[in-house]
Amino acid sequence: MAKQPMLKFVQIDRDMPIKRDADERRADFHEIYAEYADTKAREQASRCSQCGVPYCQTHCPLHNNIPDWLRLTAEGRLQEAYQVSQATNTFPEICGRICPQDRLCEGSCVIEQSGHGTVTIGAVEKYITDTAWEQGWVQPIKPARERAESVGIIGAGPGGLAAADVLRRAGVQVTVYDSYDRAGGLLTYGIPGFKLEKDVVMRRNEQLAAGGVAFRLNCVVGEDISFDEIRAQHDAVIIATGVYKSRDLAMPGSGLGGIEKAIDFLTASNRKSFGDAVEAYDSGRLNATGKRVVVIGGGDTAMDCVRTSIRQGATSVKCLYRRDRANMPGSQREVKNAEEEGVIFEWLSAPKGFVGDDTVSGVMVQKMRLGAPDATGRQSPEVIEGADYVEEADLVIKALGFEPEDLPTLWDQPELGVTRWGTIRADFTTGATAMPGVYAVGDIVRGASLVVWAIRDGRDCADAILETLSQAGAVAAE
Q: Are residues 73 and 160 located together in one domain of the fold?
């Protein structure tokens, strides 16, 4: 009988890929984790308990068949592991890098709950698909047959690209419209290279283009082309624009120079990584070099900003967050990485204004304590009177989250229904809106959320469109 390759979590400890030394990694924008060697990937995959109720799969938005591809990896059947992984996830190598596994699959791992340390699901997922690319197992899309129907997708972020992938595999003609000059959305211009190196995103874009997805880039809907024109050219339209409108702070001094939006700061940095000319960066406005930087916010975008500032050569980087460490929304793994790299976190601290003449020179900070829970169950921060101070700063970055733009007005589509939060009103399963043939997916429906949820929405929406198109074709044939 063959030796059991699984259930080794008692004999083998959890072991993440080697993390580069903080002094080394803060000097560049390369990813901070090394790749698993084949032996190590097999070893870590073998720790999976193959439990009867795989909570890791249940708590993954894509319901990835995690135990199956872990077992195949442990058995050395890596190409099969890739096929199983790819069956439910359009971009497994991206999710393996940027998903907050500690809050999703790994956080629900049964052996983690029993005190043995979770299986390193994300690192193995990344290894499987990186190997698939290296071995040439990832091929351009080749539909079994071409279909005459076409779908227009507005937005080349993860939700739009996931939908494009599913539709093209079914032979549907797909055109993706995006305002940026490169596809990928926040994967390209929002997430720094130390979390997601850009060649990883670009090769997926190239795979989609080679498979027949048409991209119309530098195309602003409402200016370069109207929504009505797009709708007239396609059998269905998917709105996958994401949410890019930054939340702001209305307080004394908020109009001073040197107070910038997180998305502008991160986009400038990522454009430089492509070798683009970025005037706002080169002039020093969106560049942290030699500056005292204060980032306001506690989510993953704030973590991206503080760690980018470190790499740009800031003299100091501090993060203000109004709650404590346990209540911050960002990944705890990211907080630890940031601290190792030299970021200082000022917990229970919130801005009340800014000081300076024409340019900011400091943030007026008020200290907080946690009081009674709010409507979401989280403890509400309360001001501690008389504990204010000024935090010196040359550059302040607001990472307060994102809101949807007013698409019905921008696109002259008053009948496009929105919620009270400004997000598009759409069915969460199919993405269908009240407008015939118009769908919406990702953050523009959910509000700012995770990449993995956008991928899920895009895939589900594409499946719903395919069903609708097939039904329409069957009726026409009668």
A: no
DSSP assignment string, 106-143: GGG-HHHHTTS----HHHHHHHHHHHHHHHT-------
Bridge partner residues of 362 (DSSP): 355, 392
Q: Are residues 442 and 340 in the same domain?
A: no
CATH of the domain at 102: 1.10.1060.10
174 & 308 share domain: no
Both 431 and 461 in one domain: the answer is yes
Question: What phi, psi does 372 have (nearest 5°)?
Answer: -70, 155
Q: Indicate if 351 and 258 belong to the same structural domain.
A: yes
CATH of the domain at 193: 3.50.50.60
Tell me the pTM.
0.93
Reported as type and span, the H/E element at residue 338 is helix 332-341
SS (H, E, C) 286-327: CCCCCCEEEEECCCHHHHHHHHHHHHHCCCEEEEECCCCHHH
Flag whether 143 is in a domain.
Answer: no
Q: From first to last of its 478 residues, what are the pLDDT tens digits of the chain?
A: 345 676 566 567 778 888 999 999 999 999 999 888 889 999 999 999 888 889 999 999 999 999 999 999 999 999 999 999 999 999 999 999 999 998 899 999 988 777 788 999 999 999 999 999 999 999 999 999 999 999 999 999 999 999 999 999 999 999 999 999 999 999 999 999 999 999 999 999 999 999 999 999 999 999 999 999 999 999 999 999 999 999 999 999 999 999 999 999 999 999 999 999 999 999 999 999 999 999 999 999 999 999 999 999 999 999 999 999 998 888 888 999 999 999 999 999 999 999 999 999 999 999 999 999 888 888 899 999 999 999 999 999 999 999 999 999 999 999 999 999 999 999 989 999 999 999 999 999 999 999 999 999 999 999 999 999 998 766 665 5
> Are 267 and 390 found together in one domain?
yes
Q: Are residues 318 and 367 both part of a single domain?
A: yes
How distant is the alpha carbon of residue 236 from its chain centre? 26
User: Residue 355 and residue 246: Cα distance in Å, rounded?
Assistant: 22
Give me the domain span that covers residue 427: 150-243+404-477
User: Which of 402, 431, 455 is a domain's end point?
Assistant: 402
Q: Answer yes or no: do 369 and 469 share one domain.
A: no
